[in-house]
Amino acid sequence: MTSKIDTTCKIFYFQDYKSSPDPIFEISAECLQPSPVPIIIDNGSFQTRAGWACKGDELGAPRLLFKSVAARSRGAARSETQIGNDISNLEPVRWLLKSQFDRNVVVNFEIQELMFDYIFSHLGVVNEGSVEHPIVLTEAPCNPLHSRQMMSELLFECYRVPHVSYGIDGLYSLYYNNTLSDLTPLHTGIVLSSGYHCSHILPVINGRLDAANCKRVNVGGSQAASYLQRLLQLKYPGHLAAVTLSRMEELLHEHSYTATDYHQELEKWRSVEFYEQEVHRMQLPFSAKGLGGVVSVEERQERRTQQLRRLQEINARRREEKLQQDQERLDKLLTVQELLEDGYLEQFHKNLVQLNMDSAEELQSYINKLSLVVEQGRQRLLQASEMEQPMDEGDGVTEMDPDFSEENTETEKPVQPVFNMAEYHQLFVGTERLRVSEILFQPSLIGEDQMGMMETLQYVLARYTPEQQEALARNVFLTGGNLQYPGMKERIERELLAMRPFQSHFQVMMASRPAVDAWYGARDWALEHPPGGEGWISRQDYDEKGAHPPVPRRLVGNRRSLHVFVPSCKWAPC
């Protein structure tokens, strides 16, 4: 996806992607008959994906993909808010960006309502006062009850939707990949999901999510992008403004990778040959206006002429100022001398004391010297004005500088540039390519005082019996946009080999499309489970029971517990 201009040096240009506004689709008849088709919304903290629960290549894919951000100035009207792809470039308005998420939990429901308005209007849902389509919505594992309650209130009371189903994105992705590969239903396994703000370890026991042993690691793609930005800003302090978060996200997606053995890979980078072969030179945009080139004889002659003129003007101004000061002092001395001639002896002696002089003879001597200086200054000014006249008619360089001749100019060689502006505007991305993804395994690199993802996985496995550990390790599933680094699967396998007992078995499977498989899994689930059945909350249920049933706060809910094949059932999280 990047344009490479030199395969030996690996010089890449930043693409600086500009998003274009999403079109407003017309709703298809297939989405209305025989009953309204569910709308699938993968409400991700980095990107939102929305579409219809239909089969086929066109309607069966996400119709909308946009970043989960909104930009609105303080005091601006609601209609002036820009959502997602309406913001072509995020950097100029980054200080205005707002998200509905805090970490991976929805807390700002005003922004969430704007997101829903954007989705429904662009999908062509124009019903007045209500949305007649069921909604399948993803949410965070163990989503707080308050967040679920506010989301249900927004959907049922503001949009009057008939049915809502909530599910975990990582389990939807697992469900889709099982059906895609025609595998037998997975009853026991463990899901490693890493998104924009955090990562999760989700154990599935006998077809049900074990919510009590789900763990979260507060490291994701957002922390990786910020870490990479800090590294490059420290490395290139002259390009602070050019090292933006958008470009760092591009570096993460296009140029980063995960080392199978982190320390061994760092040792390889000590080799000059390895560095020259693997370093990526990212070319920043720059203007060639200031580049130095070959300076011709005429240009050198013109520059020298201009310098001489500026020096002459400066010297002339200094002479005029000096002459004016001397003339003022001479006038003052002559005034004192007139006091003596007029007979004002007392005033004359007072002025002599102020002038630090002892007698009239000393005053007369000083007047004679100063008169001579003033006269000489006037003559110099007159000569300088006469010499400036030929400078206006010609270049006058040979008259002012006798050493400058045509013979000297013919023998001089052109001046070659010694400063490479293009290379100055290059970012050499070396070990940073593997250091940013390493924070998943070593959060201490960014100052986070917590376990890495694999240490947390080991802690979760230790909470089960040896038989359950074996079953879980045999089905390790990787999903999420932050696990798409090359080499991630191999690194997980190596870490599992180190932590599991001798001769034990394990298997690691990567999602086919880690970033969007959650949406496809929710689509397939909605196609197989029509609204009104298990896993759906109806408007009648909401009107009767409220946003959630009154259950004890510490109860790990098993009311229609979350099954791996029904990942969006109603359950009371811990």
CATH class of the domain at 221-287 and 425-439: Alpha Beta
Number of E-type strands:
21
**How is the main sheet built?**
6 strands, mixed
Q: Remind me, CATH topology of the domain at 221-287 and 425-439?
A: Actin, Chain A, domain 4
What's the CATH architecture name of the domain at 221-287 and 425-439?
Answer: Alpha-Beta Complex
Number of helices: 19
Going across the biggest sheet, name each strand in turn. Answer: 5-4-3-11-12-21
Low-confidence stretches: 1-7, 391-412, 550-574
By CATH's scheme, which homologous superfamily of the domain at 221-287 and 425-439 applies? ATPase, substrate binding domain, subdomain 4
- The rounded Rg comes to 39 Å
Give the integer mean of the pLDDT values.
85
Note down, in words, how this protein is organized.
- The structure is a single chain.
- The chain is built from 19 helices and 21 strands.
- With 574 residues, the protein is an alpha+beta fold.
- Among the domains are: 221-287 and 425-439, Alpha-Beta Complex (Actin, Chain A, domain 4); 301-381, no CATH class.
- The protein has a 6-stranded mixed beta sheet with strand order 5-4-3-11-12-21, sandwiched between helices. Strands 13, 14, 15, 16, 19 and 20 form a 6-stranded mixed beta sheet that branches.
- α8 (297-342) runs antiparallel to α9 and α8 packs antiparallel against α10 (360-393).
- It is elongated.
- The two termini are 43 Å apart.
- Residues 1-7, 391-412 and 550-574 have low confidence and may be disordered.
